[in-house]
Design brief:
The chain has about 90 residues and is an all-alpha fold. It has a domain at about 45-90. Helix content is about 65%, strand content about 0%. It is built from four helices and no strands. About 15% of the residues are buried.
């Protein structure tokens, strides 16, 4: 132990977890967050999500559309207005 090391390093310390359960939980959490945003702010989230992704920002525009489709299927959003919001953002 020279050079200021304080002790032995744990295996995998400082690296992100890559087990499938952790990744699956992260995806489910992200979709849940997007669904709650669309449920609260509606068509604005669809419009700005697609618009900002088309402008080059690293946002999940396709995921916003999938979540909006799920809310259309459940009857929360109107299909015509949702399609108009998404297509006018292009």
């Amino acid at each position: 132990m020279c050079g200021g090391e304080s002790g032995p390093r744990r295996a995998g310390a400082g690296r992100p977890r890559k087990d499938p359960e952790f990744i699956r939980w992260g995806i489910v959490q992200a979709l849940s967050d997007i669904l709650s945003l669309i449920g609260r702010y509606g068509y604005l989230v669809v419009f700005f999500g697609v618009m900002l992704e088309s402008a080059g920002m690293p946002l999940p525009g396709e995921t916003v559309l999938i979540a909006a489709g799920a809310l259309v299927h459940r009857g929360i959003l109107d299909p015509g207005t949702c399609c108009f919001s998404a297509s006018s953002a292009q």
